[in-house]
Amino acid sequence: MSRRSAMGVVASWCAFLLVHVIVAVSGWVLPSQPMGDVVLVYEPWSAAALSGGPIVGVTETWVYPQLALVPMLVAKILSVPLVAAMGVSGAYLIAWAVMVTVLDAIAFAVLLGRSPSRPRRLAAWFWVAAVLLLGPIAMYRIDAVTVPLAVIGGLWLTRRPALASALLTIGAWIKIWPGALLLAALVAARSRMRMLLTAAAVTAGVIVLLLALGADSEILGFLTEQTGRGLQIEAVAATPFLWLAVAGSARIEYSYEILTFQIAAPGADAVSAALTPVMAVLVVVITILGAVKATRGASFARLFPPLALSLGAALIVLNKVGSPQFQTWLIAPVVLWLVLDRTRAAVPAALVLVLCALTCLIYPLTYDALLRAEMLPVLTLTLRNALLVVILIVGIRALVRVPAHLHTTNRE
User: Fold this and answer.
1) Rounded-to-integer distance, Cα 73 and Cα 256, Å
2) Is a pLDDT exceeding 60 seen at residue 409?
3) Is the dihedral of CA 176, 177, 178, 184 positive or negative?
4) Which of 112, 337, 374, 405 could staple 297 via S-S, CB 3.0–4.6 A?
5) Separation CA 22–CA 15 (nearest Å)
6) How many CB atoms lie within 10 A of CB 292?
7) Are 55 and 48 in contact, with CB atoms under 8 Å apart?
8) 56 bridge partner residues
9) How far apart are alpha carbons 132 and 135 in whole angstroms?
10) Read out DSSP for 28-96?
11) Burial 386-404 (b: 16+ CB within 10 A, else e)
């Protein structure tokens, strides 16, 4: 490694550590309690499980896949030595931030390696910038645990496909979205059968463990629990209803059952009910398009990144939920796109950075005003949601343009 490259790697690591400290601290000082889920929900869940109380996902239905409880328990255990000095809540928040930083650091080290290429250095800087722009929500949610798993799994798909598949499957059992990367890999990679068998083995292992712990009807509860929820105010499909709320023709209400703010307006329930089937159809269409490209000889480096981004964006755009941490789902696909095909990743990378910044402006910075349906935050959210649709279109367009070597020459 040249001296200049070595200095660049050192600078990347310094920026990584500085940004994680800034983002972790910002969760304590910014409005709307951006680390609220961690301290108000994750900590009580983990405390109950460790003290012999109800175990979410095992003894009662849960909104997350069951392995999401594992990092929550790890943070609870790590927090024990800090309780005397910081109190239960403070200790848990610090433990959570440290755990996420360590996981990110492991993935960051895998990304940079010993002698990183220019695309890998650029991908590392993109990741650091995305975390900084997205703010505390990039760390203080369960989604933060899945991002490093997705990055490592994506980077290992060609050289260690079985291990990559295992990591992505574990990620999907924490929060569903890494399954989009696994699906894209199964379509685009040549070692798809090995990855499929590994994913099936990991899933079987998780189910056997859950059955041994006493879960039966709760195993797929994270899917059924989502079916009855309404249209969350930040969802893309909620945007027209928010403008009705600005005009006084719709209401923003808090659901104590699902712990989120939802739209109450004529037609909102119908839109909410339609979104999941439409999402499923779009995911199938995108997957078939990717499969056609793969059977016609498209290369993994050209096919996988836009396919992964399109699937991830589809899960966001057609979701009845629009939680700000969903933006983290776009980070890993773009990191991998920058590594595999840097030139064509420029536009998606720029869009994701803008999306992160706009999301932070909405939550936590102007969220209270959004709940009052004030025009400026509604306008900001409208722009953010429009850009989500744009990035979905950009991903699908790039997927359509992937050359199929059996019929075209690779001139792009």
Assistant:
1) 24
2) no
3) positive
4) 405
5) 10
6) 13
7) yes
8) 60
9) 5
10) HHSTT-TTHHIIIIIHHHHHHHHTTS--BTTTB--SS-GGGHHHHHHHHHHHGGGHHHHHHHHHHHHHH
11) ebbebbbebbbebbeebbb
Which contiguous run of DSSP H or E holds residue 252?
strand 251-255
CA 337-67-175 angle, 5° bins: 40
* 83, two tokens: 């309780």
The verdict on pTM exceeding 0.85 is yes
Report the DSSP beta bridge partners of residue 232.
262
Q: To 5 degrees, how large is the angle CA 346–CA 142–CA 398?
A: 25
The answer to whether residues 161 and 194 touch, using CB atoms and an 8 Å cutoff, is: yes
pLDDT in tens, 76-126: 999 999 999 999 999 999 999 999 999 999 999 999 998 899 999 999 999
Please state the φ and ψ torsions of residue 262, each to the nearest 5 degrees.
-130, 160
Amino acid at 13: W
Per the CB < 8 A criterion, the answer to whether 137 and 325 are in contact is: yes
How many CB atoms are closer than 10 A to CB 357? Answer: 17
Block residue for tokens 């119908």: 270
CA atoms of 282 and 318, how far apart (whole Å): 9
Pick the closest to residue 399 from 305, 280, 283, 299 (CA basis).
305
Whose tokens are 């006084």? That residue is: 248
Burial class (CB in 10 A: 0-12, 13-18, 19+), 105: middle
Residue corresponding to tokens 């994270």: 222
Confidence of residue 406 (pLDDT cuts 50, 70, 90): low
DSSP state of 140: S
CA distance 172 to 320: 19
Nearest-angstrom CA–CA distance, 345 and 389: 17
Whole-number Å distance between alpha carbons of 219 and 24? 33
Name the band, by pLDDT with cuts 50, 70 and 90, for residue 404.
confident
**Are the C-beta atoms of residues 333 and 308 closer than 8 Å to each other?**
yes
**Distance between CA 151 and CA 331 in Å, rounded?**
9
Contacts of 319 (CB under 8 A, 6+ apart): 235, 236, 275, 279, 326
